[in-house]
Write a structure and sequence with these properties.
Oligomer: single chain
Structural class: alpha+beta
Strand order of the largest sheet: 1-2-3-4-5-7-6
Shape: globular
CATH superfamily: Gcn5-related N-acetyltransferase (GNAT)
Radius of gyration: 14 Å
Strand content: 35-45%
Largest sheet: 7 strands, mixed
Distance between the termini: 26 Å
Length: 147
């Protein structure tokens, strides 16, 4: 089971920020071979949900209140370290993120921009596809909603 912490940007210490940026870069830039601007100026508005296994950051999301990213609350930058994916940490970090939306923002309406190959994962968490598939940074994505 993950040790999960939820922090605002201002609550992150330097090591936590470094670790989350390193994990995001490791997966989204290197593993997925996608050159894109990860540091997009939006981290300061987000809640950061950090998942630790034995004090190592292995899972992460960032969460936005309604209106900061989409009309609905949103969860993005969902990432689990490659060698830790077999333990169900994706579900752990997403369930904690869904709870963070409810607890911090008092809503259960959540929109995500999901990588298409993860549709079933998000369906299992209660998200439904809306609209057509589209390319974001060269990777197929689809909008998904959970109410």
């Amino acid at each position: 089971m993950l040790d999960i912490q939820t922090k605002s940007f201002d609550q992150l210490n330097t090591k936590e920020l470094y670790d989350l940026l390193q994990l995001r870069s490791e997966v989204f830039v290197v593993e997925q071979d996608c050159v894109y601007q990860d540091i997009d100026g939006k981290d300061s508005k987000a809640l950061h949900v950090l998942g630790y296994n034995k004090k190592q950051l292995v899972a992460y999301t960032r969460v936005f209140k309604p209106g900061d990213y989409f009309k609905e609350a949103s969860i993005g930058r969902v990432v689990v370290k490659e060698d830790q994916r077999q333990y169900g940490y994706g579900y752990n970090i997403m369930n904690a993120s869904i709870e963070a939306v409810k607890n911090y923002f008092k809503t259960s309406d959540i929109r995500i921009s999901a990588q298409t190959y993860l549709k079933t994962f998000y369906n299992n968490l209660g998200f439904k596809e809306v609209g057509e598939e589209y390319l974001e940074d060269g990777i197929p994505h689809i909008n998904m909603l959970k109410f």
